[in-house]
Amino acid sequence: MSFGAASAVRADDGEPCPCGSGAAFGSCCGPLLAGDPAPTPERLMRSRYTAFRMRDAGHLERTWHPRTRPPDPVQLDPDVQWTGLQIVDASIAGDEGRVEFRASWRSGTSRGVLHERSRFARRGGRWLYLDGDVAAE
């Protein structure tokens, strides 16, 4: 699977979080990328978007449900730059969650939006990404 680029990018704790929440990285996605569990599916989705932005394939793999995680390591496409995240809707029902989002990207002169309805499951007290349905834009 190829998504965004290979070497990790660093962010300072005081910088605005790449997920666009308005919070500082150190109080938003930073702790999740460092291994803290996400309190909600939306926060996990935001941290996964931030992982794409920061090229942190390890976080993507750690937060992917083992039942649906690809067998091969996540390969991030060095040409793809993720440029914005919009959460459309988020819900929780017991140990299942859903997040609909739009993530903007660019690669060279191409630009686009990934519109996905993602499913999450809580396992061992941690939210994990299951899968998603990509919607036509």
Automatic annotation (TrEMBL):
Family label: Belongs to the UPF0225 family.
- Tell me which Gene3D superfamilies the record gives: 3.10.450.50
- Protein name per the record: UPF0225 protein E4K62_07225
In its UniProt entry, the species of origin is given as Microbacterium wangchenii
InterPro entries in the cross-refs: NTF2-like_dom_sf, SEC_C_motif, YchJ-like, YchJ-like_M
Its taxonomic path starts at:
Bacteria, Bacillati, Actinomycetota, Actinomycetes, Micrococcales
Check the UniProt entry and state the signal peptide residues, or none: none
Limits of the YchJ-like middle NTF2-like domain: 40-132
